[in-house]
Amino acid sequence: FRHSDGKMILIEVKNETGKLREDQIKFQKFIEDKPVLYGVCRSVEDAIELIESS
Q1: What is the pLDDT of residues 26-47, one digit of tens each?
Q2: Cys-Cys link to 12, which of 16, 27, 40, 52 (CB 3.0-4.6 A)?
Q3: Which of 28, 27, 35 is nearest to 8 (CA)?
């Protein structure tokens, strides 16, 4: 939860070659229009970038 704008933060953690499963892809599409910050991250740096740039 990001206090500044009230968005919930959901991060899908994958390794360098990991791919989203079909159910994760469906969830990603479902969550697009919700007040949620969602992304796939492969490192701490990716997660920080996701949170700071959105």
Answers
A1: 999 999 999 999 999 999 999 9
A2: 40
A3: 35
